[in-house]
Design goal:
By secondary structure, this protein is of the alpha/beta class. The protein folds into three domains: 67 residues; 60 residues, no CATH class; 186 residues, Rossmann fold, CATH 3.40.50.410. The chain is globular. The strands form four sheets. A six-stranded mixed β-sheet has the order 8-7-6-9-12-13, with helices on both faces. Strands 3-5-4 form a three-stranded antiparallel β-sheet. It has a two-stranded antiparallel ribbon with strand order 1-2. The relative contact order is 0.11. It is built from ten helices and 13 strands.
């Protein structure tokens, strides 16, 4: 009988990478997990080095820390003299997230999105149509027009009339405003599963993708727990979960307020969450109920989904949990908004968000 022999898996170091680059990849992951605490990340990295022999006698942890400072990834320029991550480190974390999640994408383009509409756009399409008054002369398909002239008037003396002309349809491109809502309620780290790190990585990858591939689009990131507030893209790697309930209402209200100020025609909301709404603010006090679907909170949430539908703002919900009691909330919420919903595993979250982002830009909402 043929069998298999198993042995301990020892991952090989990436080919062509220096000792510094190999350690940097691990360090940046740890910095993101620790919420930007460099000392804690270095302590974890030192423990990993002791257990798995990441360094050797020629290049140790001290050399790595010195090189981090020399290359501008960490700094001690603060009153307390503590290590802090720099903007360069944050950008590298976002780039790493983009490569990890959207690694199969081809780079290119000017940062615009095609729609299904045609007209006075700025990129040549594949469709042809007869010339009309007002068309740009650069749109004329000369080969097709000459062929038409020869068919219509013969091969003798060359004659071309307006009726022989064909033009290439230009495609409109859209600019899109997206608000990404990230749930930072306590459940995002409960039950032995780290849900916030994949959510952060997805947000970082989307931010890096938009700023590099679609620079004319806008992306705003908000987090919601007991309240909701906007964060800067540079702060994404260091986002942490708080001891919060889930105030989806505050998140939606803030997202709508942000999108009202955006001039783009296409607008949308992405919401990453792992639970139902359990909190809302009434005056200066919080009304909380974590048991079941509280009618007061639930109905207010549905009302906001309906308002977004009237404003032509689709909401795509990425539910990174599949508990049966959550499905009814997601179904009702999606129906009220006429949006989309996914019950996503943490592994496939980034690909789902990108596909929806890309598809929504192909239509004028």
């Amino acid at each position: 009988m043929k069998g298999y022999r198993f042995s301990k898996f020892i991952p090989q170091k990436a080919q062509g990478k220096s000792e510094f680059d190999n350690l940097l990849d691990i360090f940046l992951q740890l910095v993101s997990i620790t919420g930007g605490d460099v000392a804690e990340a270095l302590a974890w990295l030192t423990n990993l080095d002791k257990e798995y022999k990441l360094t050797d006698s020629k290049y140790g942890m001290g050399d790595f820390i010195d090189e981090l400072k020399e290359k501008g990834y960490i700094s001690e320029d603060n009153p307390d003299g503590k290590f802090e991550v720099t903007g360069k480190a944050g950008q590298q974390i976002r780039k790493s997230a983009l490569e990890e999640i959207f690694g199969q994408l081809k780079k290119g383009g000017k940062g615009q999105h095609r729609t299904k509409s045609t007209g006075q756009g700025d990129e040549a399409g594949t469709d042809r149509r007869p010339f009309e008054f007002g068309d740009n002369l650069q749109q004329i398909a000369m080969t097709d027009s000459i062929r038409n002239a020869q068919i219509n008037h013969g091969f003798g003396d060359f004659v071309m009339t307006e009726n022989d002309l064909e033009v290439v349809e230009n495609e409109f491109k859209t600019q899109t405003s997206t608000v990404l809502m990230i749930d930072i309620s306590h459940s995002m780290i409960l039950y032995g599963e780290d849900r916030i790190t994949p959510a952060k990585k997805t947000a970082m990858a989307l931010a890096e993708l938009i700023t590099t591939k679609y620079p004319k689009d806008t992306l705003d990131v908000i987090v919601f727990g007991n309240d909701a507030w906007q964060i800067q893209i540079k702060d994404l790697p260091f986002l942490q979960v708080g001891p919060y309930h889930t105030n989806t209402i505050a998140g939606l209200e803030l997202a709508m307020d942000i999108l009202r100020r955006r001039k783009n025609t296409n607008k949308q909301i992405f919401m990453i969450t792992d639970g139902k709404p359990t909190c809302m603010k009434v005056g200066i006090k919080y009304y909380k109920n974590a048991f079941g679907l509280d009618p007061k909170i639930f109905n207010k949430t549905l009302n906001l989904a309906s308002q977004c539908r009237k404003l032509k703002i689709p909401i795509t919900t990425f539910m990174i949990a599949s508990d049966p009691y959550l499905k009814q909330f997601v179904q009702d919420f999606t129906k009220a908004n006429n949006g989309n919903a996914y019950y996503s595993s943490l592994k496939g979250l980034g690909h789902l968000i990108f596909e929806d982002y890309k598809n929504n830009r192909r239509k004028s909402l």
